[in-house]
Design brief:
The complex is a heterodimer of chains A (about 210) and B (about 250).
Chain A: H1 2-6, H2 8-40, H3 45-59, H4 63-73, H5 83-109, H6 112-120, H7 125-155, H8 171-176, H9 181-210
Chain B: E1 5-16, E2 19-30, E3 34-38, H1 45-51, E4 60-65, E5 68-69, H2 75-83, E6 84-87, H3 99-109, H4 115-128, H5 144-156, E7 162-166, H6 174-189, E8 193-197, H7 201-207, E9 210-215, E10 218-223, H8 225-230, H9 235-244
Helix pairs in contact in B: 3-4, 3-5, 4-5, 5-6
Classes of the chains: A mainly alpha (about 210), B alpha/beta (about 250).
Subcellular location (chain B): Cell membrane
Catalytic activity (chain B): a polar amino acid(out) + ATP + H2O = a polar amino acid(in) + ADP + phosphate + H(+)
GO molecular function (chain B): ATP binding; ATP hydrolysis activity; ATPase-coupled polar amino acid-transporter activity
């Protein structure tokens, strides 16, 4: 117990670091995922190709490798940003591939006739997607997007290996100070549970509110 | 009667893989004309109907609307579609919106009318198809016939130059077919240009100016309903009519 009480500040710092990474990367992933999903169903071929390449490259690359590529690769091309920002970019782009696919599967649950009706009324692709297809797709994608964001929260631990302040990384100083490693990790696990269970709770609410059957 | 052409199809061809679904289609629909397309399943009649507002693309040939060729994807195509209403076999009302919002949505988004103006027009049209009292309901709460009438109101809300009907009564219970046909009869009588793919021979006889009979991707006959139903010229049409008119 005294691992936590003695080093409360260190834990809180790590905890907030993880929360920050999760929130910013989630927002980025949602925006990019939404954009890529629109690309993948767009009537223009080159957009579809771009979306497909984006998803396949990011989804099929190990996240650690991606971190190496961004944190060590980009500075070589003169792109120097704070490590935390790099971490948000990496996590956000990586997760956007999964969000995109969840959204796309949701779009596919909306009967084709809905889009055809909207187009036959003269609505543009963007209007059709935004006012007819996505609002109906949204209901069925709440659970998979929740899972993806929980995975994102846990994936953020990798950023710790690249000297970004986050929760898992707090074990290193604590270990050096000679605290019991098991209890150190128990409290770290509790921290992650607080974050992931909050995301679960948020998505449960969203599902109850919007996920009503038609 | 010599009518000004509104919809023209010239040498239109379309393939689905090896299947030649539309073969050298030439068809002109004049302003104010009601053309009924009939034919056996798989003859390409629905595909033909859907090519007119480019929900289906064509392989070769030309489609003109009001003298202008159909534009490719993009804003221009969207504008053109707003001029040609479409009513589908499966209604395709927006499931997440009320009846009123279904009719108003495209008026607001495409015609840029204000919500109040759009809703007012929507209520007038719903009243016209006999559904003013259902405005606040969701599509799933209506019967098939009612949904199809809403769909017609939704198409009319755009003030289209022409209406396309793709088997509008095929998914309906027999009881409900009439209420939809009555609305369509009324539109025809008012001079709306209509292309109707249907199996309702009664409607073809009473409302159509011309009957187009299609088989195997070709237009086999294009005549007045009177002439077509009493003395079909082709063997294929005689065969088709003998099968459907027996019962």
């Amino acid at each position: 117990m005294h691992v936590l009480t003695d080093n409360f500040e260190l834990y809180v710092q790590g905890f907030l670091g993880t929360v920050q990474l999760t929130v910013y990367a989630s927002l980025l992933a949602l925006v990019l995922g939404f954009l890529m999903a629109s690309f993948r169903v767009a009537p223009v071929g080159s957009f579809r190709v771009f979306g497909t390449v984006w998803v396949n490259v990011l989804r099929n690359t190990p996240l650690t490798l991606l971190f190496f590529a961004v944190l060590l690769g980009l500075p070589r091309f003169g792109v120097v940003l704070p490590f935390q920002l790099f971490a948000v970019l990496t996590l956000g782009c990586y997760t956007s591939a999964f969000i995109c696919e969840a959204l796309r599967s949701g779009i596919n649950t909306v009967p084709k006739g809905q889009g055809e009706a909207a187009r036959s009324l003269g609505m543009t692709f963007g209007q059709t997607l935004g006012t007819v297809v996505l609002p109906q797709a949204f209901r069925s994608v709440i659970p998979p997007i929740g899972s993806t964001l929980i995975a994102l929260a846990k994936n953020s631990a990798i950023a710790g290996a690249f000297s970004v302040t986050e929760l898992l990384g707090t074990y290193k100083p604590l270990n050096e100070m000679g605290y019991n490693i098991i209890w150190t990790f128990v409290w770290i696990a509790v921290g992650y549970l607080i974050i992931t269970l909050s995301i679960s709770a948020l998505f449960n609410v969203l599902e109850k509110r919007y996920g009503v059957a038609r | 009667m010599a009518v000004e052409p509104l919809i023209e199809l010239r040498d239109v061809n379309k393939h689905y893989g090896d299947l030649h679904v539309l073969q050298d289609i030439n068809l002109t629909v004049g302003r104010g004309e009601v053309v009924v397309i009939i034919g056996p399943s798989g003859s390409g009649k629905s595909t033909l109907c859907r090519t007119i507002n480019r929900l289906e693309t064509i392989g070769s040939g030309e489609i003109l609307l009001d003298g202008r060729p159909l534009p490719a994807e993009g804003k221009e195509l969207a504008q053109l579609r707003a001029e040609v209403g479409m009513v589908f076999q499966s209604f395709n009302l927006f499931a997440h919106k009320t009846v009123l919002a279904n009719v108003s949505l495209a008026q607001i988004k495409v015609r840029k009318r204000g919500r109040e103006e759009a809703d007012k027009r929507s209520r007038e049209l719903l009243d016209r198809v006999g559904l003013a009292s259902q405005a606040e309901k969701f599509p799933a709460q209506l019967s098939g016939g009612q949904q199809q009438r809403v769909a017609i109101a939704r198409a009319l809300a755009m003030n289209p130059k022409a209406l396309l009907f793709d088997e509008p009564t095929s998914a309906l219970d027999p009881e409900m077919i009439n209420e939809v046909l009555e609305v369509m009869q009324q539109l025809a009588a008012e001079g709306m240009t209509m292309v109707v793919v249907t199996h309702e021979m009664g409607f073809a006889r009473s409302a159509a100016n011309r009957v187009v009979f299609m088989a195997d991707g070709r237009i086999v006959e294009d005549r007045t309903p009177e002439a077509f139903f009493t003395a079909p010229e082709s063997e294929r049409a005689r065969d088709f009519l003998s099968k459907i008119l027996k019962h």
